[in-house]
Structure formats: structure tokens, C-alpha cells
Amino acid sequence: QFVGRYYRKCVLAPIGCSSNLCPYEDHPFPHRYFDGTVYLNLTSDPFVFPESEWDRIVRELQATQPEVIEGEPVYLALLARAAQRRGVTVPSVRAVILTYGKASLQHSRRIAEVFSAPQVDLYGSTEAGYLFVGEAFQDNLQAIDANAFIELVPWRADLPDVAQIYVTTREREAMPLLRYHTGDIVQRRATGFRILGREGSI
């Protein structure tokens, strides 16, 4: 519903995320608004944000009235709590993108208490870009073929539907990747794919 048209988006994510696109200096609000996107946080650790920082973030969220909120799931859960404590709702939100980290059901529920829009799981990495997209927790991730060629290499002989991810980027001139091993493990499901986690932690 957003492809090919202008829409407003707010991002709350680690500084230096997404190929270092996020601002890292204390710019006032209008100067953190790029092509319809507002980058809300100025420092990386939301667990140490003072209440005055959450006041600012919630005000900017209200001022922007975004159709899309994108962020690291823990950050968005904390944002939902901050908005709830201030009695703030943002009815303009039509989609919540969970990215930059793996979401838990607990985080998802906390976010949905305040932002009731459908949640989207967007998987990728700083090095390789976005690779899979689907509905959160529905095991229906699909490869984003326009961004990269994704090669699924068998991980273990006893798990034929589980694979390692190797990525070759498309149309990237600055830092092209050829069969880049992401270190993540994916499982093929009836409706798409599920990201299982990192090789070393499974």
C-alpha cells in the first residue's frame, strides 16, 4: 500500500544503523527530516533516555503523524510505553516495521497496545541490506530479490529444510558483496521462510 507513493515515516533505531544512514549529532527536529522520514533518537541506548528525551520523541512523533513507524523492537516497545504513560495515541500509523533486531512476542504485544497497525518483519544486515520481508510471526518471509541474490546452502544433513544464507548484492557499486556469509540460519516453511537466528547460538 506504500509502494510508489509518498508517505511519512518515523524511525527509532540504533545510531549508525542501516549502512550509517541514521543521524548521530544533536540536530533540531526539522534537520532530521529526510525525504519524509524523521529519525527520532539522538543517542543509542533507550534504557538511559531521561524522561525529557522521551517527551521530545513523543512530541516529534505527534508532530509528524507518520503512516509508518520503523525500529528495533526493544526500542519500539519502550516508545509504546512512553506514549502510553503520556496518554498519547498516533492514529495515523498504518504499519509498524520491526527490524534491526529480532522481535519477541512480548515486544510485539507491548507495541500493539499503542500502535495497533499490522506489524511487518524486515530482515537484513548493515553489510547486505534488506533481504527478507513478511508479516511478523507468520513464517511467511519472502526474499527481496531486487536487493540481492540469496543463496540457501544446506546447514546440517539431518535438517534438510534449514539453510545458511549467502548473499550477492545487486547494483551496488560502493561495497558489492559476492557470496557473503551472513551467519544467519533460515528455515523453509509452507508459507515462506523463518529466520531461526545466528549459527553460533542455535
Describe the structure.
By secondary structure, the protein is an alpha/beta fold. 20% of the residues lie in helices and 35% in strands. The strands form two sheets. The chain has an eight-stranded mixed sheet with strand order 2-3-1-4-5-6-7-8, covered by helices on one side. Strands 9-10-11-12 form a four-stranded antiparallel sheet, with no helix packed on it. α3 packs parallel to α4. The termini are far apart.
Order of helices and strands: EHEEHEHEHEEEEEEE
Low-confidence stretches: none
**Strands ordered across the widest β-sheet:** 2-3-1-4-5-6-7-8
> Number of DSSP strands?
12
Question: How many helices does DSSP assign?
Answer: 4
Give the distance, in angstroms, between the N- and C-terminal Cα atoms: 35 Å
Q: Please state roughly what percent of the residues sit in beta strands, choosing from under 5%, 5-15%, 15-25%, 25-35%, 35-45% or over 45%.
A: 25-35%
Overall body shape: globular
Estimate the helix proportion, in percent: 10-25%
Major sheet? 8 strands, mixed
The overall pLDDT, averaged over residues, is: 87
Rg: 18 Å
Assembly annotation: single chain
Structural class: alpha/beta
List the helices and strands and how they pair.
Layout: E1 9-12, H1 17-20, E2 33-34, E3 37-39, H2 51-64, E4 68-71, H3 73-85, E5 95-98, H4 105-114, E6 119-125, E7 129-135, E8 142-143, E9 148-156, E10 159-169, E11 180-189, E12 192-198
Parallel strand pairs: 1-3, 1-4, 4-5, 5-6
Antiparallel strand pairs: 2-3, 6-7, 7-8, 9-10, 10-11, 11-12
Helix pairs in contact: 3-4
